[in-house]
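Internal QA ticket QA-208
Title: Verify multi-chain structure generation after dependency bump
Assignee: T.L.

Test input:
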Amino acid sequence: MNSAKTLTIDGMTVEINGEKNLLELIRKVNIELPTFCYHSELSIYGACRLCMVDVEGRGLQAACSTPPEPGMVLRTQTKAVRELRRTNLELLLASGNHDCPTCGKNGSCKLQSLAERLGVTKVRFKAPREEWPIDTSSPSLVRDPNRCVLCGDCVRVCNEIQGIGVLDFMNRGSQITVGPAFRKGLDEVDCVACGQCAAACPTGALLVKSDIDKVHQAIDDPRKKVVIQVAPAVRVALGEAFNLPAGSNVMGQLVAALRRMGFDKVYDTAFAADLTVVEEANEFLQRKTRNKNLPLFTSCCPAWVKLAEQDFPELLNRVTPNDRGFKVEVEHLSSCRSPQQMFGSLAKRVLPVQLGVEREDLVVVSLMPCTAKKFEARRDEFKVHYNPDVDIVVTTQEIVRMIRNAGLSLADLAPESLDAPFGAKTGAGIIFGNSGGVTEAVLRYLAGDLSGSAEGRQILEVVRDEKGRREFSVELASGTVKAVVVSGLANARELVDDLREGRAQFDFVEVMACPGGCVCGGGQPTADDSGARRKRTVGLRHLDVSMDTHRSQENAALETIYKDHLEGRPGSHAAHKLLHTVYYNRKRIQNEALSFSEISGKPRIPVSVCIGTGCHLRGSQDLLRQLLRRAETDEMMEKFEIRATFCMEACDLGPSVHVNDRTIHHATLEDVLERMEEVQDDEPVSMETHTCFR
Amino acid sequence: MSPAVKEVNLEAVAASYREAAGKVKRRVVVCAGTGCMAGGSLKLVEVLKKAVAEAGLDLTVALEPEAGVKDLHLSKSGCQGFCQMGPLLSIEPDGILYCKVHAEDAEEVVRATLVEGRVVDRLLYVNPTNGTRCRGIGDIPFYTRQQRTVLKACGTVDPEDVREYIALGGYAAARKAILEMSPEAVCKEMLDSGLRGRGGGGFPTGRKWDITRKQPDGKKFVICNGDEGDPGAFMDRSVMEGNPHAVIEGMLIAARAIGADEGYVYVRAEYPLAVQRVRKAVKDAEAMGLLGDGLFGSAFSFRLNVMEGAGAFVCGEETALISSIEGRRGMPNPKPPFPAQSGLWGRPTVINNVETLATVPSIIHLGAAAFREVGTEKSPGTKTFALTGHVANTGLIEVPFGTPLRHIVFDVGGGVTGKDGRPTGECFKAVQIGGPSGGCLTQDHLDLPLDFENLQGIGAMVGSGGLVVMNQDTCMVQVAKFFMHFTQNESCGKCVPCREGTKQMLALLDDITEGRATPETLTLLEDLARNVKIGSLCGLGKTAPNPVLSTLKYFREEYEAHVLRKVCPSRQCKALLTPEIDPSICKGCTLCARKCPVGAIEGTRKQPHRILADKCIRCGACAAACKFEAIKGI
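Actual output:
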């Protein structure tokens, strides 16, 4: 030990070993300083002032933002330190709604546990409270500013880890609050619903939106058959909430618990993951052999898909106008639906016959580690005649509550097995739950078991690494494949930038929004440290090893499904219809159009005339006027809702007019009227579909 | 790098300006500082121009060397300091200062003084102590008791004419620093001078520069902090408005010292005139070759950007200011790293206050030793203060460090004023120094030499230099409450102690002034104040409790009167007033009952009336109406 590089903590001599701040060093000697705003993976914020320690000669300093210096003498337990912590905590408790029994975070709240730890039994301050409205607009998250302690963790996670930045501080002084710009709701901004903000939130200010009531309602309804699919990542994290170590597999007990709670059938999303591997690997092979539309980006992660739709439209579909309107070609994002949605679409196709119910009476519930899955399940593309493929999505956190609510002791339940046919899976489907797992599964499909060779093991080491971005290449029959695995959307953005600028080139790109992948999804039980992330991943790997089969093509149940429902082969027409999708460009202002038609009760086909500058200069204003004049006299026009809309971002092709789901470029009045006549008896598309113009 | 700018010849510019100035018989300077402008000085200028023309005098507003002999040069200056008496108008070489000159006085000034050479007596300042009329600043105690160094040119030079600044020796110090001194030498000179930051903290400027100089080479920045926000402080504003080139020259020297090639002047957007004048000064300096590439024929380059603040007091804190320039929310960040190590865009950065930078040229020009001749050992030089409150002469003043408070309040300030606004002998109560970060000084401190150490020792601070004089009618709890209200509004909301603590301190002070307090309230207030002071992230929070702690320290009995006896000794806290009608005086005229807006007075005609305590809102309407002064306690 180099004596020049030591300092003293509460009388102990401690070596400085490259620690960035005093907090790290103090925690290393097993003194747990209280913190709200310190997060080892985020920038230093220094605002909660709970980690203040006495530095001899300097007074109280925040340990998180003070670098260690040799010779420092630290005291973590002085009267001043204790008083300050207590005062700070009391101030926070007086600052908003901290009524624990009615809070969704009750039991896992940091404020609550700190108050207990520091023995705060009385708050000496008054609580002058102004109520902030609660934001329930997102399908995935609930934001209650009244429970916020303003530690800024969510702001920094959203900005630094995810590169999204929809949350920030606003107002000053005691009026300060966190939220999206212009006080919009989370669903009105570029939130991708990943839920990492809620995972970082120490209190109940950001919570997963609960759909428990919907599940109970479905189970209570005697006409309904309620089935549930369980995502791979859930089984290795659920146990944590029942005092089992992180990473322990509780699938058997979970199945038993789900049956006790009234689910008719319990299936495994890993089955659909195997299906995804087969479809995606074949899609990739096809692109690779043609050397077209590379790299392929995976599309299992709904948060990533939404980000791509918002910010990287060039990765989506290529839409080219032709004489029939336009043609959609897949660009870079895989057209495969996520395992959740493949499961949903297949289940609603196969199960009504098997279980003897109508499609409308079959309720498909998903148990996911993910908050964005709630958003995904509501997408228009995943509905058939307004009936969603996946009806309800609940997260691990919600199922924990349901199990507790039912009074079940998870650890004591006798394990039960899953139902056929969607209970069958291989190890490849299991590892979908961690970052790198999709890539590894696809590699197993294409190249066989890599662990057989030294070279292969080396590749696997990279794939299984924990870093936010891992690159490697692998030799396949079709040539060398350069692949990259990223988790954390800021890493994804950086990667796309590299590709755009030509700084990097890849054939295969796996993106998972949450750092570490689905095991650390926003809907998982709150983990205090990143140790849980690793343990859950290890848990999935152990599960993979314990399986009999490890390659998706070895899933026997899959073969039957292909034979009976998917025309026998991957990428078939039927497979495309059930298992693939298209994407929409969200890079525009939505729902801000001006409607000129009279209000009417029945759904009408939307006709949007672009009045952006480019189209305006090309005469769109006249076109709009003529259309409106025609609408006053022509009876057919009653079927349409005529609107003026912002720039459609096709200025070179203007005037642009969008009729139902198609865009007419270089539009004349005759073109528009002709198209309107063609579609007048079609079903009006949803506004979301309608406003995704390209 | 763009081509080198033309090399400026300072002596030639100065000579040509002096030549032009020499051809002018008289110079009339109208103060265009904010106070005088609010008083109508710009209108005065326009009316003066007309009157001068009617009188047939030959007038110029811009001195041009090629122009012939002129009768009169009319110019606008920055703040001349004596805001109480504005709008101010001075006439040189006659040495006349006219006070409270309005547009309707213009004609008389032109006719009497400019044409006939007579002094207009009624516009002269009258010394209240002996009733004599003072002809010019040489006779006015407000000026003679000061030592104006930084402010010397403020109020005489035309802030919009760079040539006049050069003619007074301006930019020679910058040239000296760039051509004749090494960066080390510049830093050493500053260290030797002992100059300390005028923005509040008093950190040695030379040390700050030297630390930044020693950072690895590469892009560095100089920032001028012009985000003066203390209530009642306007020193930096006056310097930026009155002598912007001194600030620019100071920044040039700082840039030379640390090796920066770019700078920012961060000015409060609420100072539109300062923004305008600094922008013009930067433009003029660029045109003159005083900013840009290859300055004075050297390889040294310096560019200056002017940035308007967005209205947050906290942006005066250096890390918050940097965030603000970077386009982020103005919130302070933990230090270390200090701006000297990692400042603007992560580059080593020197941030100095306006007054500090304006002091720099004279130090380089005259040397550290000359600077040290004034002031005290540890706080050399002079300091400007904004003198306001219950004092006869409010305005902008400058005195050497070490000057006792008594001198400032009674000699420069002309004494404390009472209810009627006139100076009275015995009613001094306290001085609040340093604004919301400072503390108060009492009768006992009147002879304390004012410098950084002494003020810190008694729980106050120089701060940016606001000096609010308070008379006996001031409630010290209300003073603490005023500043707490300010800081809780201006807290950025980042750290818990400042955000929540200031809010709670304000609530406790409210309890005290509204009669809800118990002895525990005082203990809690004191505990909380101490914790906010040690626990807050930045200077704003760390100093926010000072007004509370300092008033508690020196006026504890006043707090106790509020808490224990529910009495406000200065009768300022309305909730604690208990108005009563003295039945022995009351004539039963019913006037008070009719004036009472809430019907809280009852009584029959010609019988003594009575105030119903539970209905009374303590507005004082009754007392104001009573012709017999029968209503007591309000």
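Spot checks passed. The CA atoms of residues 426 and 554 of chain A lie 7 Å apart.
Status: verified.
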